[in-house]
Each structure stands twice: as C-alpha cells, then as structure tokens.
Amino acid sequence: MSDKKKKHISYRPTVLPPEVREGQSVELLKALHILTRDGQLNQDSRRKLKQVYHLYQFIEPLLQELADAAAPCTLADHGAGKSYLGFILYDLFFKQREVGHIFGIETRQELVQRSEELAAHLQFPRMRFLNLSVEASITSTDLPAQIDMVTALHACNTATDDAIRFALHKKARFIVLVPCCQAEVAAVLRQHKNKMLGQTPLSEMWRHAIHTREFGSHLTNVLRCLALEAYGYQVTVTELVGWEHSMKNELIIARYTGQRRGNAQQRLLAILQEFGLEELTPRFLPDMPVAAQGEQEAV
Fold this sequence. Notes:
By secondary structure, the protein is an alpha/beta fold. It has helices at residues 3-10, 26-31, 43-68, 84-92, 109-122, 134-139, 159-169, 184-191, 193-197, 209-230, 264-274, 281-284, and strands spanning 74-78, 101-106, 127-131, 149-156, 174-180, 233-239, 250-256.
C-alpha cells in the first residue's frame, strides 16, 4: 500500500453514530465507555445511551422551568454509581449556563473518586461527588439546605425510598425516579403468605413465587406514588423506554405543589393493612404522623 493511501486512511474523519446528540462531548462519552475509541457504539452502550437520553428528554423541561424562574438549579443524583446521568445532564444543560450545580451521592468511594477525576479532566467545575449514605447526605454540610431536583436512576430496592426521603428533607421541587429491583415488599409478602392465604382471596395474587416478586414490585411503586401525593406532590407515572430495551422501565416524576391528595395517606395505610405490610409504614411515610380520618386536605 502506498504512503499516500496510508495517509488517506489514517486521517479519515470518524463518523459518529446517529444516536449521539448534537453538541454532546465525544470525549465524555468515550471516558464513560459509552463510545469506543473509534467513536462507535456496541449493543450494550447503545441501550444505555438510549435510556439516559430518554430520561434527559423528561428532565430537560423541568430544569428549564427552574432556570426560567431564576432558580439555582441544584440537582442531586442519588445512588449516582458511575454518574452517567449526572455527566450527560451537565454536558447538555448545565455547561452552557453560568449557574447550577450537580451533586452525585454514592456510597462506593472508588466510584466517587473516579467521577471526581473525570469532572476535573473535563473541566466541569460545578459537579461534586460525595461519598455519603442517605442518612449522612440529609444532614451533610457539603450539600445545600434545599435541592431543586432529586434523581435516582435504577436505584436498587430501598435506595429509591431513600432518595424520596432525601428529597422530602431537601424540599425538592422535582423528583425523578426509575426504580429497580424492589425486593423489600415482596419479602414481607412472602413472610406472611400463609397467614394471608387464610384471610383474603386477594392473596392468590402473590401465592406463586414469580407473582410474589412481580406483584411486590408493582405494589412498591403504587405505595411510593401514594406517599408522594400525601406529601404534596403531583405524580406522573410512565415508561422510560420501550419494553424491548429494559424491563426496569417505570418512570415516576413528582412535582411539588403543596396540595396533598386528600385520601392518599389513608389509602396507603389501608393497602398496607390489607396486604399485611403494616411494618413498612415508616418506609413509605417517614416522619409523617398518621392523620386521623378527615384531617387530610381536600383533593
């Protein structure tokens, strides 16, 4: 092969996959191992990028609403992991603005350190990563007293409830959740299964092991939505992406209005009692005294 032909191949420009959004940092996507060194996507990274971009489409209007109201746009990504979501949010939205901070909260120190190094390398100065548990993050002086938005993407099992608790303490205006691997409710259903089989025909809904898992997962998110409504949030539930891309697909978006759904707390408590889950009351109604019948505000 001639030198001229070698030179032509060597300097041929890389064509990015069509899935990559315009303006997205290629360096960032390579650092997150979403793009390969030659700027391409494999099947797993294509699925991951599709999920994060879909979530961005839901989050961007909420961030824009905060920006239009001259709010500081503080966002906490709870259970951040490798911070795919936080980095892409910063790159596509926060980087073009002079204000706004993203806080990644993660319990694994090695992931926090890796994210800190990447943020410094990319010159993303308004990103911080904190090695904190949920309890510590609520009271930590490294976080502002109020957070405008709390996100939790595939926060496993009770980590989603921890993110909700954190958001309540921080008076978040928006909460965006993609729950994952809910096992706690299913475990309690399983524990009391024999007793409930003798009390209600509804127990047939979780008599079989696979139904226990699936019903427990669905019931968990129903209880979360009722809890958010009881705390004064307007809740929307939809799917993140098509089922062909992910089974962990439920997206919960909560907007604080201050108007509590009148019967949300009573219905939540009634459901817990109906299914023998009373012991989980503190999980879904943290720090809220049980209101007497009729004390809740009107719908």
